[in-house]
Amino acid sequence: MSTAVAIEGVAKIFNEGSSDQVDALQGIDLHIEPGEFLSLIGPSGCGKSTLLRLIGDLLEPSGGKVTVADKPAHQARLDREYGMVFQQATLYEWRSVAKNVQLPLEVMGRSKTEREDRADAMLDLVGLSEFKSHYPWQLSGGMQQRVAIARALSFEPSILLMDEPFGALDEMTRERMQAEVLDIWSQTGTTIVFVTHSIPEAVFISTRVVVMSPRPGRIADVIDIDLPQPRDEDTRESDRFYEKLTEVREALRGVEGQ
Amino acid sequence: MTTAAARPPSALRIAARRYLPATLIFLGGIALWELIVIVFDIQGFLLPKPSRIASTFVEEFSVVVPAGWFTMKEAVGGFVIGAVAGVLIALTTARWTVVKDGLMPFAIAVNATPIIALAPIMNNWFGITNPMAKMAIVAVIVFFPVMINMVRGLTEIDTRQLELMRSYASTPRELLLKVRVPNALPYLFSALKVGTSLSVIAAIVSEYFGGSRDALGIYISQQAALFHFAEAWAAILVASFSGIIFYLIVTLIERAVMPWHSSIRNVAGT
Q1: With an 8 Å Cβ cutoff, are A90 and B169 in contact?
Q2: H or E segment to which residue B164 belongs
Q3: Which of A13, A256, B146, B252 could form a disulfide with B86 if both were Cys (CB 3.0 to 4.6 A apart)?
Q4: What is the sign of the dihedral through the CA atoms of B221, B227, B233 and B238?
Q5: Which CATH number describes the domain made up of A5-81+158-256?
Q6: CA-wise closest residue to A38 among A158, A207, A200
Q7: Which of B165, B168, B182 has the CB atom closest to A94's CB atom?
Q8: Which of A79, A84, A95 sits opposite B163 (nearest CB)?
Q9: How many CA atoms lie within 13 A of A179 on its CB side?
Q10: CA B53 to CA B215: how far, in whole Å?
Q11: Triad B7, B9, B12: Cα angle to 5°
Q12: pLDDT tens track of chain B, all 270 residues?
């Protein structure tokens, strides 16, 4: 597998030809290497969530080509290459925690024992083993989001797509979750594409940050975050972290000023 | 060290706290009714005393209870037919959206019309003493809210839940069984609960247009025509109890089917 994701000349236009036409994305070229942790950041309306949905074949591009794991995005979806996590945990409220994690495996026709073993392992990974019989409403927001991550990883997808997954969490929980996702990333080696509007989050968590500009959505800058791994609380206080923070902030300021 | 004050309240005490206000208001209301009839010397044919209704109920027990049973069979029979038909039609609309787009405007329009007005026509179609005439009315009245709510429950789903299933490359059948149907259950049960009282109303009112002599509606209208108001009230009491029991049975089924739902967890959690 040469590249995890290859995006070539991709454009997305909503309501094409009608009066409320929106040019969401234009001329996007991006290659993501296997095992990368890539963040998409930009002001609202820059099309970062749209780009994520194009990678995951939840939307079809109006032009250009999206290749994932060396095949068209559509085929990659049918081959279950994607795990999805949204800002809302989006748990199915009629299913217990364990049953939520098992859902993708059920859809994929895996055996009951395999489903249960995988769910146990995943809930262990996110530290929620004791809560497997609980229902979603009995969990806090952070715990619900951990279940959503466990569910997305349950079938070992080659790429994890996360759309502002911590946007609804408080700052403390948010920082803890960032560390946990980094930990999971280093354990599983999964490629992660992560949409965020938080600069410190993008810098702390990613190996590369893609800065996007709005109307129409375009890639304005790509910044390598060469902070040492593994990252921890000391990383957040290092001078190098501040330098990268400034670099991303200035790139974003250039975008806003347009 | 445990003190009496720190102990959690007993189950009995919790139950008492929850049901006491309603019980007091019920008993107070009955007492007030009795008192008003006595104080203002209201004639029995206008408003009988509760004590008089109770004693009539005991005297007429062997007539009103079988009559209630007869009418409840019509109500429940029609309810089942209407509910099953409503769910089946709703499921076909989930499969073929054309059916939904074609049917929903009419369903909503018909649901807003007084279907009970068809009762005399149904009496002609099925025969005035045939319970099917009443069941048909009940079935039509229950059908529309069940179908409309079920269609909403099958289709009004969080976009992200659909996106997730799409990312798992699920088949339409799995999407139906694992997401659409469970999502529709709360909608379905709220329609069924409304349907229980609608079905009892429809059965009794359609009997007012004529029917078997064993029926509760016939008994009520005949006794009222003879100025036997205590008897009529005793029969209304039977109708109320039957309706409440029917409602409670559906509520129990609801709790068994979807213990996860918010409408139930609030009750279970306190």
Answers
A1: no
A2: helix B159-167
A3: B146
A4: negative
A5: 3.40.50.300
A6: A207
A7: B182
A8: A84
A9: 11
A10: 19
A11: 140
A12: 444 555 677 788 888 888 888 889 999 999 999 999 999 988 877 888 899 999 999 998 999 999 999 999 999 999 999 999 999 999 988 777 777 888 888 888 888 888 888 888 888 899 888 888 899 999 999 999 999 999 999 999 999 999 999 999 999 999 999 999 999 999 999 999 999 999 999 999 999 988 888 899 999 999 989 988 889 999 999 999 999 999 999 999 999 998 887 766 654 443
Instruction: Please name the residue of chain A whose CA is at the shortest distance from the CA of residue B269.
Output: A138
Residue A24: CB atoms within 10 A of its CB come to 22
Interchain CB contact of B177 with A (< 8 Å): no
pLDDT in tens, A68-119: 999 999 999 999 999 999 989 999 999 999 999 999 999 999 999 999 999 9
- The three-state secondary structure class of B17 is helix
Contacts of B28 (CB under 8 A, 6+ apart): none
Find, among B137, B261, B218, B166, the residue nearest to A80 by Cα: B166
Is the minimum CB–CB distance between B170 and chain A shorter than 8 Å? Answer: yes
- Chain A positions touching B174 (Cβ under 8 A) are 106-107
Residue reference for tokens 């009892």: B200
- Which residues on chain B are in Cβ contact (under 8 Å) with A135? 260, 265
Q: How is chain A split into domains, by residue range?
A: 5-81+158-256, 91-156
The DSSP bridge pattern shows strands A37-41 and A191-196 to be parallel
Residue in B167, B179, B181 to test binding to A, most A beta-carbons within 10 Å: B167
* A232: region left, alpha or beta (phi > 0 left; psi from -120 to 50 alpha): beta
Three-class SS string for B217-258?
A: HHHHHHHHHCCCHHHHHHHHHHHHHHHHHHHHHHHHHHHHHC
CB-based contact, B265 to chain A, within 8 Å = yes
Interfacial B residues in 147-166 facing A (CB < 8 Å): 158, 160-161, 163-166
Length of chain B: 270
CB neighbours of B227 closer than 8 A, spacing ≥ 6? B45
Residue of B160, B161, B168 with shortest CB distance to A80 = B168
Nearest residue of A to residue B159, measured between CA atoms = A90
CB–CB of B206/B121 below 8 Å? no
Q: Give the CA distances from residue A70 to residues A4, A76, A106, B55, in Å, rounded to whole numbers and listed in that order.
A: 7, 9, 26, 84
